[in-house]
Amino acid sequence: MFCILTLLLLLSACSALDGSIQPTATPDAQKVNVFGTAANHVHAMMALPGNVLLVATHYGLYRSADTGKSWSGPNQGMGDMMTSSLTSSPMDRQHVYLLAEHSLSSQTGTIGLYASSDGGSSWQPASKASDTGKMYTIVAGNRSANELYAYVPTKGANGFVVSQDGGKHFSSPGPLPFGRILGILALPGQPGQLLVYSNDGAARSSDGGAHWQTIKDFTSAVYNMTTSGPREPIYASGDQGIMVSKDGGKSFSMAYADARYSALTAVPDQPEMVYGKTGRMIYKSTDGGHSWKTLPQIKGNLENLVPDPQVSSRLFLSLSYPCAVYQFDQQNPTWTSLTPKA
C-alpha cells in the first residue's frame, strides 16, 4: 500500500504539532490483551509482504509474522516508548522506519527515528530528535530504498527535510508553500514526484521538494491522500469532499461531495477501489470514489485501516482503548479478531 500514515487524529491526541507530549493517563497494571492495558492505543499500523503486521502503539511496537495469529512485543530495543508514523520503502518493503519518543517520565530510550532492514524484526536508532528536531511524520521516498522524507513542525515552512542515507542525515531541499503541513505523499514509481497537504490546501513538487506548485483545485483543508500504485488515481479527502486526480496530482476533480473521511486507504492493483474511515464507520467505493457503501460495523475506536499487500480482498483494522487488531475479507464479509487475550 502506498498510503500516507499522517497521524492526523492518531498522534494529535498525544503529541502537539510543536512536538510537546500531551498528558496521558498512566496505564493500569492489569493487561487486557497481548497489547497491554486498556490505556494503550494505536498510532500507526502496517502490513508487509510475508504475512508481517506491525502495530505502533503509545506503549511500544508489536509485530506479527503470521498475519496476526501470534504477536511479539513490545520491541526490546525501544521498550514501551511511544511509537508512530510507520513507513516502508516501495523499492524494498523490508526497509521500514518509525518515530519513537517517551510516553512516560521513567523512560530513557533514544527519542528520534529508528530504522529496520528486515521488515521490523530488528531496529536501530538512525538519528536523534535532538539533532534533527522532533519529526511529526515520515514517508519513504521514491528515488531509492534509503530515501526518507520528514516534516519537523517547529521549523514551519522550512520543516520539510529529506535523507538519502536511511535517516542518518537530513537536509532541507527548499521551503514549503505552507506554514505547516499534515502529510506527504511520495508518488510510487515516479522519482522526485511529491504531494503535500495541509489546512490550507495541497501542493506538488517534481524535483524532490526543491520547488512547489500549489494545486488550485483545493481551496481549503486536505486531510489525507492515497494512491494504489504507480500512475494510478490519487484520492484526497478534505473540507470539499472526496477529490481524485488522474494526472499525477497536477489537478483534482470532485468525485463525491457528500463525505469527509478522516483517512483514505487505497488497495494495491485495484485502482478504482478505495476505503474511507471515520472514528466509527468504514466505507468502500469500487468506482473511483463516486459512490460509497458501508462495511459491517465494528464496535470500538477505529484507528488504522490497511490492505493486505498480497491479498487484495483482505483488510486489517486497528482499534484503540484498548488496542486491538481485526481482519476483514471480502470473500467472507465479517470482522475477525486477531487479538489474543492476556
From TrEMBL:
Q: Which SUPFAM superfamilies match?
A: Oligoxyloglucan reducing end-specific cellobiohydrolase (SSF110296)
Signal peptide range equals 1-18
What keywords appear on the UniProt entry?
Signal
Answer yes or no on keyword Nucleotide-binding. Answer: no
* Keyword Signal (UniProt): yes
Its GO CC terms? membrane
What is the name of the protein in this document? S-layer protein
Please give the organism: Dictyobacter aurantiacus
